[in-house]
Design goal:
The chain is mainly beta. The chain has one helix at residues 67-75, and strands spanning 4-19, 26-40, 43-56, 62-65. It is built from one helix and four strands; from the N terminus they run ββββα. The chain has a four-stranded antiparallel beta sheet, with helices on one face. Strand 2 and strand 3 (43-56) form a beta hairpin.
Length: 82
């Protein structure tokens, strides 16, 4: 008998202060990365998929983000030169 499956691993990337698109309140938002890994006999072997999501701590609204959107949020505002 072989036991295999998937397991999700969640990692907090950052906590940002943003205006929520759902409740329109300035609140903390947690940016997460979720990695699904293939497991064999309950041992994680390799990642199968990776996604990013952001949760509003005020209303609980959750939204998925693309890799580019998450990188922009982590980079922060660009300083203006001139």
């Amino acid at each position: 008998m072989i036991i295999f499956g998937l397991k999700a691993y969640t990692r907090l990337l950052a906590t940002l202060s943003l205006v929520c698109p759902h409740c329109r309140q300035q609140a903390a938002h947690r940016l997460f990365e979720v990695v699904n890994k293939f497991t064999l006999f309950f041992i994680p072997l390799f990642p199968v998929s990776k996604s990013r999501r952001m949760d509003c701590t005020y209303c609980g609204y959750a939204s998925k983000l693309s890799k580019e959107q998450a990188e922009q949020l982590l980079a922060g505002p660009r300083p203006s030169i001139g």
